[in-house]
Every structure is written in C-alpha cells, then in structure tokens.
Amino acid sequence: MQDEFDGLKKVQLSTWKRVIDIVFQNKSHLVKLGLFMAGITVLDIIFPQLNRYAIDVFFIEKNMETLLPFIIVSVLVAIGFGLLVWAFIKQAILIEATVSHELRRQAFDNLQRLSFSYFDKTPQGWVMARMTSDASRLSEVISWGLLDMLWALFSMVFITVALLATNIRLGLIIVTIIPIMFLISQFFRKRILTQERLSKKHNSHVTAQFSEAFLGAKTTKSLVIETENFTDFYQSTGNLKRAGIKSIMLSAVYTSLLLVIAYVAVSVTMVTGSIAVLDQIITVGTLQLIIAYTINFFEPMLVISEKIADLQNAQASAERIVELIETQPEIVDKKEVENVYGSLLHTKKENWETIQGQVSFKDLTFYYKEDEIILDHFNLDVKKGQSVALVGHTGSGKTTLINLLSRFYEPKSGSIEIDGKDYRDRSLQWLHQQLGYVLQSPQLFSTSIKENILYGRLDATDEEVIEASKAIGLHPFVMTLEKGYDSEVGEGGNLLSIGQKQLISFARALIANPRILILDEATSSIDSESELIIQEATKTILKDRTSFIVAHRLSTIVEADIIVMLEMGKIIEKGTHEELIAKKGHYYQLYKNQFFSQQGLIEDWLKT
Questions:
Q1: Residues 369 and 516 in one domain
Q2: According to the model, what pLDDT value does residue 6 have?
Q3: Given a cut of 70, is residue 465 above it in pLDDT?
Q4: Are 498 and 576 members of one domain?
Q5: I need a surface site. Which of 110, 154, 337, 393 has the fewest CB within 10 A?
Q6: In terms of domains, do 321 and 361 share one?
Q7: pTM of the entire structure?
Q8: Judging by DSSP bridges, how do beta strands 387-392 and 546-550 pair with one another?
Q9: Residue 190 pLDDT > 50
Q10: Residue 9: inside a domain, yes or no?
Q11: Which residues contact 390 (CB under 8 A, 6 or more apart)?
Q12: Sign of the CA dihedral 485, 556, 542, 566?
C-alpha cells in the first residue's frame, strides 16, 4: 500500500466530484436549502436599508408618520429571518446525516466486494479511520462548510451590487480588496493542505496502534511490553500533535491576516464616507448603510477563508474515503459470467447449477512476488467425495493452495477446474456458496450461538441448527447453558473457549451442507477432548463430500483418502497413510518425528 502522504498534491477535483455526487443524490434538500439561503441573503440586505430609513427619516427629518408601518415591517423581517435560519439549519443537518450515512454505506458496500488480498495488505486501523473519523469530518465539512461558502458567495454578490448601486466610489474600495485576499488565500492554501495530509497520516498510525493494542492485549501482557508499546504510541501521538499544531497555526495566521485587511477596508470606508457626509454628498443614513454593508461583506469573506481552510483540511479525508469507495477488487467475474450468475448483491440463484465436487488443479503456478514462487506447475486431481490431506513444512504452499481453491486469489498461470469447468467461468458467489470453510482461528460474531450457526445458511430452521450441532458434538455443551442456543458468545466469542468456538464454526459450515469442505488446521488450537469429538463427527460428515484438510497434527488425517506431501510448492509424495508410511520417505520421517515428540511429552507428563 502506498504511503498515505506523498508530498504536496493539488486538490483533486475528481475526489470532490464524487463527494458532490453523493450530496446531489437528494436534490429536494438542496433545492429547499437554496431557497432558504436566498431568502436569508435578501433579508441581510434589507436590514441595513431599514436602518438607513430610520436614521434619515425618524432621527434626521424628525418625521414619525411612518413609524408604525416601519415597526410592523421590521418585526415581520425579524420573524422571517428567524424562520429562514431555522429551516436552513434543519436542511443542513439533514444533509450532514445523509452524506455521513451514504459515505459509510458506499465504503462498507465496497469493502464487501474487495478481494482477500486487499485485507491482507491493508491495516485494520486504516479502514477504521476511514469509516469513522474521515466520514464524520467530511460530512460535517460538506453540510456546513460548502453551504456556508455558498451563503457567503450569495451575500458578497448581493452586497457588492447594493454597494455599487448606493455609491460607486465607496463600493470600489471593497472591490479592490478582493484580489488581495485571493492572493493571500492561494499562498496559504498549499501549506495548510500539506500539513493536514501529514496530520492525517499520523492519525491513521495512531488509530492502527489503538486497534492493535486492543486486539493484542493478552500478547502485550504476556510479553511484558507495555513500556515499549507506550513509548511507540507516545511518539506517534507526538507526531500527530505537532502536525496538528502546525496546521492550526497556519489557519490562524491566514484568518488573522484576512481580518486585519477587512478592518483596514472598513476604516477607509468610514473615513471616506464621513468626508462625503460633511460635503453633503451622502446622508448619515447612507453612511451607516455603507458601513454596515462593508462589515457584512467581510463577514462572509472571513467565512469563506475559514471554510477554504476547512476544505483544505478535509481534502485529505475526502481522498482517503473516496479511495476506499473506489478501490476496485483484484478478482472480479467476467461480464458474461455475471450476466448468467448475477453479482455479489444481485445474485441469479435460479441459474446456479448443483456442484458434484470433482476438483482438478492443472499446471498451477502462483506467486505473491515474481521472484518467490509459491506453487510451481502444480497438478492434482481430486475425485468427487474424496478427502485430501495437505501436509508439509511451513511455507510449502498448503494454505496458498486452499486460498486459490477458495478463489481468494487467482492462479498466475494454469487453472482450477470444478466438475471439469474452469472455476473462473462461474461466479465467485456460486463458488463460495458451495464451500464450507473452517479456519484455525474461528471468527464468531457478537450475537447468540444460534445466530452464529445460522450465518452458514440464513434460512435454516431451529431444528436444522440443532441437528448440525448434534452432528458435530456441540449440542451437549449448549444444553448446559441457561439460555441454550440463545446464549450470547461475546465480542469475537470471548465468552467461550477456543474449542467451543471451533465447534460452533464447524456447525456453521455444516448447516450450509457444502459440497466441498475445507478444514484449515481446524483442530490445531483446540483441546484433546474437543478434538476427539470433532474426529468422531468428521467420519460421518466427510462421507460423500469432497474435502481438503490442512493438518498440523498428522494423527487427524490418517484416514484421509489421499495425503499430499508438499515442499516448495510441489508434490513430493502422494498416497494413503499406509502407503506413505510403507515408503519410509518424507512423510514417514515427519510422522515419526511428530509421533515420538508427542510420546516424549506424554512420558514427561507421566513422570511429573
């Protein structure tokens, strides 16, 4: 993954275009907002006109004939202003909530489509920061920042026209200030954006460390590395603090400089206008009107400068969340396949054929890096209903082969055929519907035991849940719980033992009734008692079902139909347990070493 901060870049209009497209999905909110904004701007122009009338007529001319109508109009304008501001704020809140919801929805929707390789390469903290802080920040800037800028632009245009119509000479003072402010804005824009991108980079690191500290709490305590973790985190937060302070200081200097220029312009207007009053060119009320318009002109100008700084800051957030939304999966179905089988969220299950379970790996080559071949011209034919055990030392290619079969990755060359057809000629969803996958470290969701099992097949009945649990040996344990299958498993299943979590993941895979079952070292993390339960259950479960077993404990695969011994991505031995033992080759040595190692542990335990 590329570094999140790669120097100064120009503001990407394509990034904001995607965000603006989200804003414009609900045009009714924007139309109402525009109407309310125009009304507020008009009333902003009317207020100083009322004040000029009051000064010239009531105070200078001492004419009170129109006092009552004036009071009525003033009250109505004030009430109208209050109602319009309330309606404006309501629409802005609705837009903020809508944009935040849509950003997260689109980001999460795309996460479901991304390939397995994306999650291998992308830190969890990076994704979490995009879904939380960046989405919130961006929706806030869009709903209030852009809207405030639009209001400010409306106001400035209306006020400029009103100033020039009232007195061209004094109006030109304001017009000449605008280019100066524009140049200042250009100067600070790039520098603020640079610091904000750097701040966002450090923020992602801090979020990732938070996540790792939580997930790795047990490891941290067992290794006694709290001090090291604190030091690293202190350095990361220090970097974030320094980058944030620099960004805020630049924004503060930028705003302060504009404020000074604004007050200089107001002072010049007051002096020039006062001379005009003394020369009887304009009235006192007109002078008050011009001063009010001048002040009112620079208020939106300051708002624009502030919001430009906010948009510069939000540019980094926009880039990252749009990147998450627009990242394309590495593995996608061909268009003709999608036309028949459907897409991820719009499947056409009526066209899905039933799988038989014959699997063929044909001249398969795969690598993550070109100079590090994992599987090299690999060939293997597995008949329907056969159980295949994959054994070998770490790095031999066992898990990679399973990941390719699951189409988490695709071969660099060669093919994988299911029932005689390249699996790329069928959809990803079709394939995953046929697979049952049990991991070494089971992942449970923070809900009940029943709901976790039902994730295997959402339309399964309670009776089918119980039947699958009985088949795997889970049912007796569940019956000891007060709420039975409605018992909560806790976050990630932390209320259960590893063995109990694994039994639930087995039941979840089985209720889906997959034609191909994958056990990826599924018994390596469980206790001996649970292992015996699973071993007994799998004898029935694997019958007439094609299965691939990645085994760490060789004692769990002695009854497999085929044992494949891998080394450096190639098959060095293949056969049944008895055949390989009789050969006295690589598998025999591995099995013997593991057997005697376990025997030694048992003898040491008995001695104690």
A1: yes
A2: 41
A3: yes
A4: yes
A5: 393
A6: no
A7: 0.64
A8: parallel
A9: yes
A10: no
A11: 398, 401, 402, 548, 549, 550, 551, 564, 566
A12: positive
Phi-psi region of 167 (alpha: psi -120 to 50; beta: other; left: phi over 0): beta
453 closest CA partner among 481, 434, 472, 480: 472
Cα torsion 83, 88, 94, 100: sign: negative
Check if the beta carbon of residue 236 is closer than 8 Å to that of residue 202: yes
226-258 tens-digit pLDDT: 777 778 777 888 888 888 888 788 878 877 887
Shared domain check, 243 and 116: yes
Q: Which amino acid is at 410?
A: E
- Rounded Cα gap, residues 17 and 144, in angstroms: 17
Residue 20 tokens, joined = 């603006």
Q: Which domain holds residue 531?
A: 353-607
Same structural domain for residues 309 and 390? no
* 143 and 275 in a common domain: yes
Cα 261 to Cα 267: distance, rounded to the nearest angstrom: 10
- Report residue 417: phi and psi, to 5°: -110, 135
Query: Domain check: are 285 and 373 in the same one?
Result: no
3-state secondary structure 378-433: EEEEECCCCEEEEEECCCCCHHHHHHHHCCCCCCCEEEEEECCEEHHHCCHHHHHH
Is residue 247 within 8 A of residue 144, CB to CB? The reply is no
- At 360, the pLDDT band (50, 70, 90 cuts) reads very high
For residue 580, give the CATH number of its domain: 3.40.50.300
Looking at the 3D structure of the chain, how many domains does it have? 2
**Residue 336 included in any domain:** no
pLDDT of residue 562: 92
Q: Check whether 608 has a pLDDT greater than 60.
A: no
Predicted confidence at residue 602, as pLDDT, reads 40
Question: Do 366 and 477 sit in the same domain of this protein?
Answer: yes
Distance between CA atoms of residues 605 and 323, nearest Å: 56
Residue for token digits 């409605």? Answer: 486
Q: What does the DSSP assignment read for 416-480?
A: EEETTEEGGGS-HHHHHHHEEEE-SS----SSBHHHHHHTT-TT--HHHHHHHHHHHT-HHHHHT
Instruction: Give the C-alpha separation, 72 to 569, whole Å.
Output: 89
* Owner of token pair 């502030």: 306
User: pLDDT: is 197 or 601 the higher one?
Assistant: 197
The whole-angstrom distance between residue 272's C-alpha and the CA centroid of its chain comes to 57
Distance separating alpha carbons of residues 471 and 426, to the nearest angstrom: 31
In a domain, 254, yes or no: yes
